[in-house]
Amino acid sequence: MSPRATEPIINEDEHPTLIPSLSQGNVLELPPDSDKSTAAADGEHRGCLNTVFDPIKGIVPYGGMASNVFNLESATLGAGIVMLPSGFLNSGIIIATLMLVYICFTTVYSIRILVITRDKTGFRSYEEMACGLLGRGADYFTAFLMFVFCFGTCVGYVISVGDLLSPLLNQPSTTGFLRTSMGKNVIVGVVWLVAMLPLSLPKEINSLRYASAVGVFFIVFFVICMIVHAAMNGLKDGIGSDIRLVGDGWGILNGFTLFVFAFICQVNCFEVYEEMKGPTPRRMTRDSSVAMSMVGLLYFLSGIFGYLDFGNDLEGSVLKLYKPQDDVMMAIGYVGIAIKICGGFAICIQPSRDAIYYVLGWGKTSDVDSWKNLVVSGVLATLALVLGLVLPSIEVVFNFLGSFCGGFLAFILPALYYMYAGNFSLKEVGWFNYAVTYQLLIVGVFAVVFGTALTIYDEVKK
Asked: What pTM did the predictor assign?
C-alpha cells in the first residue's frame, strides 16, 4: 500500500461538522461545535462525583482546558513514575534526559496527527482508523493491541497498590492477619471495591476529571517527597562517584522502552478530544503540550532524584527502597500514589472496553447501552483484580507493554494513519511534518523489534 494523495485538504485548526468518510465515500454528521450542545451533554451525564464537587465545578469545567490537561496527565502518570529512577540508572542521566525530551515531543506530535486524522476521516478510534485506512483485519489486530496494553496496565495497577500497601502493613503495630499475604489481598480488594470499581463504571472520561485532578496533585506531592528524601539521605554527603552520565547500549534501550510505556496516553486522546469544548487540533496540541510538559518535568525530577538517592541499589520499582513506616511524609505520599493509581486504573478500563465493543460490533462506549457498559466494565475490573492478586510481579509485563504495544500505539499506528488519511506528501504537509512522521514510523519499528527482543532475552536469562 502507498499513502493516498487524492483526498481534499481540511484546515487542521477548524472542526468541520461535515466530513467525507474515506471508507464509504459518504458524509458523516459530527456533533455541532457549540457550547450549547456541550452544556446539554454535561447536564445529562452528571455523575455522582460531579454532584459532590458542584461548588467547585468552575475550577475544572467540563471539556475545558483544565479538564483536558488533568485527564491527559492522569492517563499518563501512574505506576511508571516509580520505575523512572531505574531508567536513569540504565540509561545514564544525560541520555535519560534527552530521551524524556524526545518522547515528550513525539507524544504531543502523535496526539496532534491522530486528531487531525480523526477530523479528516470521521473515524473515532484506533480500531476504526485501522479498518478504514489500513484495511479489514488491521482493526482486529489494533483492538488486540489496545486491549492487551490497557488491560495489562490495569493489572499492573492492582499489583502496584499491593506493593504500596506492603510497607505500611508490615509495621510491628499491625495485626497479624493484615501482615500476611491474604490480609494484604483483603485490603487491596477493599481499595478496589471502594475506589477502583466505582471510577471504572462511568461512560465519559470527563466524569473522572475531579479524580484526575486529585491524583495529579498526589503525584506532585510524592515527587516532592522523593526530592526531600534524597536531600536528607542520598545527597547528604554529595553526589556518589558511581553515578553514570551515559549508560551502555542495552541499558539505554531498556530505559527507552520504559520511558515509552511511561508516556503513553494516546489511547485516551479521542475520548478527551470528543468531550472538549470547541475541539480543534490546535487546542488539543496546546492542551497536550501543557500536560506532557508537566509530566516530563515530574518524570525528570523523580528519575534523577531517585537515582541520586539510591544509586546502584535501584532495581525495578523505587517503592521497595523507601521506609514509609518511619517517615510520615513518605507514608502520605504512598497513600497518595495509591489514590492516583485508582484513577489511572479507571482511565485504562475505558479503552479496554472500547476494544471489546469494537470487536462485538457495538461501536464506542458512547454508543453502548448503559447497562451493557456497566456489565462489561465490572467484569473487566474484576478480572484485573483477580489477575493482580495472583501475579507476583508485573515488571516483565510493563517492559513488554512499552516495547511491543507502545511501539505500535505511540509511534507506528499514528504515523500510518496520518499517511493514509490523504494528501501526505512533502509538498502538501511540509518538510517538518513529513520528516517527523517518518521518524515516528522508523523509531516505532525499532522499539517493537529490538525492545521486545531485549525483554524476552532478559526474561530467559533470569
From this structure: 0.77
